[in-house]
Amino acid sequence: MSKYFLGSVGSAEAFRVDGEGKKRFMFRSSTLTSSGVNVTSTQDQIRAGTGAPIVFTFNHDTSVELTLEDVLWRSSYIEAKLGGQFAANATDYQSESHVADAQGKITLDKAPVTAQLPCEDDPAYIIFYAKKGSDDWKMYDGDFEAGSKELSGFTAGSEYCIRYLANDEQARELWVTSDVLPQELYLIITTPLYAGDSCNVSNGKPAGHITFEVPRFRLDPNLDLAFAMSSNISISLNGSALAYTSDCNVNGSKLMRIVECITDRKWYDGLEEIYIDPNFEAKAGEVVPVYGVYENGSSTLMDNSATYNDAAAFTFAIADGKLTVTCAVNNTSDSMDTTASSVDAAGLLS
């Protein structure tokens, strides 16, 4: 019998959810360095009687928190955390070097543009320069016409390093405002599942995966980029699952769905009983609702499409790895195929 364990960080996919609930692909992360899922619930003790023993416990304030850390840069991460979008054809600072001509003039590659500076009434040009090899940078304060690329007042024949603000078709921009509102995401995290032999668990091999599906995920609006000269920068995505309503929600609001998928699992593993829905109305031509009850107490609707024709004319059969429901009137049947060859029907059908 195999023993299973979780390993590695897997991958994550996210979809942006708009106000109408429509999903649009946001990003896929396959270069995570760490990921985590934390489900918590506050439990209070109810005590009564002599000595105040614990009589009941009361659970409330359930929370699902998730953390993803990616080694790569993605602008979609920033958009999701800050709730904005990068706009195209932004202004950016250009770095160029030019030699002044005989008249002491320099022609830039692009036309500088103005920027609105704090405490300034009018927009101003941001142009600063230094002689090549020098660290003595100065602001350019010479004459300049809007839309021009020409600067003057330099030493003829000297080479200058120049930085200035200009439109750049390769640049995109996102303004961080004071009213940051993170986007709501539909998040899917898939983590590998491994199996080890019961006698030698160190020989682990891939055995499936665990999927965490969060229909409503709201990121924390915290962006922490710590730049270091000897390492790359990782981006962390932290957030919490939001509750949503579906059906009647008799067991409370839904936060996250966990799916366990094991590669060699068969549909009948752990199956204890098969039965017909007791509320099924026997009508000719109706599909027979067949349910299976598993050893952990869960039940599920089986994949059956055989139709009912006579109150006493349908049977179950399990043979050669197939569960078959047969309607005897016209001898129609439907089967669920498996690769097993030894499924014991005795004690399994009721």
Secondary-structure element sequence?
A: EEEEEHEEEEEEEEEEEEEEEEEEEE
Question: Per CATH, which architecture of the largest domain?
Answer: Roll
**How many structural domains does the protein architecture include?**
3
Q: Find the count of extended strands (DSSP E, 2+ residues).
A: 25
- Amino-to-carboxy terminus distance: 29 Å
Number of helices: 1
CATH topology of the largest domain: Pnp Oxidase, Chain A
Per the principal axes of the C-alpha atoms, what is the gross shape?
Answer: elongated
Note down, in words, how this protein is organized.
This protein has three domains: 149 residues, Roll (Pnp Oxidase, Chain A); 86 residues, no CATH class; 66 residues, no CATH class. It is elongated. A hairpin with a 2-residue loop joins strand 23 and strand 24. 2% of the residues lie in helices and 47% in strands. The strands form seven sheets. Strands 1, 2, 3, 4, 5, 16, 17, 18 and 19 form a nine-stranded antiparallel sheet that branches. A four-stranded antiparallel sheet has the order 7-14-11-12, with no helix packed on it. Strands 20-21-22 form a three-stranded antiparallel sheet, with no helix packed on it. The protein contains one helix and 25 strands. It has 350 residues and is mainly β. The two termini are 29 Å apart.
Summarize the structure.
With 350 residues, the chain is mostly beta strands.
Helix/strand layout:
Elements: E1 3-6, E2 11-17, E3 23-29, E4 32-47, E5 54-70, H1 75-82, E6 87-88, E7 91-99, E8 106-107, E9 114-115, E10 124-125, E11 127-131, E12 138-139, E13 150-151, E14 159-167, E15 172-173, E16 184-197, E17 200-219, E18 235-241, E19 257-262, E20 271-276, E21 290-294, E22 299-301, E23 314-319, E24 322-327, E25 332-336
Antiparallel strand pairs: 1-16, 2-3, 2-16, 4-5, 5-18, 6-15, 7-14, 8-13, 9-10, 11-12, 11-14, 16-17, 17-18, 17-19, 20-21, 21-22, 23-24, 24-25
